[in-house]
Amino acid sequence: MNDIRDILDDLGYVVHDNGRELRMNPLYRDSSSSSVLRVYKDTGWFTDFKACKAGPFEELVRLTLGVQTLDQAKSYIYKNYDFVKPKKKQTKLECDKFLPKELLLNLVQDYSYWNKRGISIETLELFQGGVATRGKFYQRYIFPIFNSRGKLVGVTGRDVSGKNPIKWLHQGSTSKWAYPLQINYKIINKVKEIIIIESIGDMLSLWEAGIKNCVVTHGVKLSPRLLSIILRLNPKRITIALNNDGGKEGAGNQASEAMYKILTKHFDEETVQTKLPVKNDFGCMNKKEILEWQNK
Q1: Pairing of strands 46-48, 37-40
Q2: Residue 243 lies in a domain
Q3: Do both 26 and 105 map to the same domain?
Q4: Banded model confidence at residue 95, pLDDT cuts 50, 70, 90
Q5: What is the CATH classification number for the domain harbouring 194?
Q6: Which of 134, 138, 185, 245 is deepest in the core (most CB within 10 A)?
Q7: pLDDT tens column, 165-221
């Protein structure tokens, strides 16, 4: 037995298969989320999004077993399993990979999920999405991601069934995305202010409140691609508004500090501010609360 999935099963993880990655609850700490821990099938590299931890598969085993050293974890793996350590991928230059637009042909214009969350049909129509009726995005509301030339470089889907523990599913390289600049690039370039947020749900809530100068990180990290675009836009004000996860130990709070340090290497401190939502995220706030947040 040498499969990463088999070892995780034996360690007691309840694993959700998500294509090229596995998602689960981290057994080495208290957590109510069944998808906050990600492990790639091909390399074993893990990321704990809430705890801001990442590392090789052996480190995940060490944390799970509660042993002190990496050698102890390796000893457990290689004594109990015919395990072949995944090879590191060679770093190489990559061009944008385009997806066939046929992916968008079977979408149903069902806006009910977002309407219940206060997002209007008028706003949703701008982003050309819909609910998938088949395939791996079945029962997910799909948002297409286009590059500056109108090429489809990715899709992301929000579960609208309430049955899937993984809220968002992506296809394409999120590190290459700059969303929704396909819609609001000219707006940001005109106002010279930009708000950095975590998810499309946050973006829709802000947009509905009339705040349209935002970019989505699809996580808690600022990708090199997005940083380069921000540098090119050269805004007079950058607001970091990742999720407010409750105190300094929260993932969004810690990531905001890290992002601030990155941005202030390129911009004056007066240009960059951290201004988290007053609730967990903007999707939890109504229009009045969002406008009050903006006007503070």
Answers
A1: antiparallel
A2: yes
A3: no
A4: low
A5: 3.40.1360.10
A6: 245
A7: 899 999 998 888 999 999 999 999 999 999 999 999 999 999 999 999 999 999 888
| 89 pLDDT more than 60 | no
Distances (CA, A) of 186 to 181, 192, 236, 272, 292: 8, 10, 15, 21, 25
What is the rounded CA–CA span in Å between residue 282 and residue 289?
9
Chain position carrying tokens 């995220």: 281
Is the model's pLDDT at 92 over the cut of 50?
A: no
Is there a single domain that holds both residue 168 and residue 195?
Answer: no
| Residue 90 falls inside a structural domain | no
- CA-CA distance, 65 to 11, in Å (whole number)? 8
Residue whose entry in the numeric block shows the structure tokens 């992002």 = 259
Number of domains in the chain: 3
Residue showing tokens 């109990």: 80
**Domain ranges, residue 190:** 181-295
User: Considering 155, 176, 197, which residue would you say is the last residue of a domain?
Assistant: 176
Q: How far apart are CA 245 and CA 199, in angstroms?
A: 14
Q: Are residues 167 and 208 in the same domain?
A: no
pLDDT digits (tens, 9 = 90+) for 52-69: 788 899 999 999 999 999
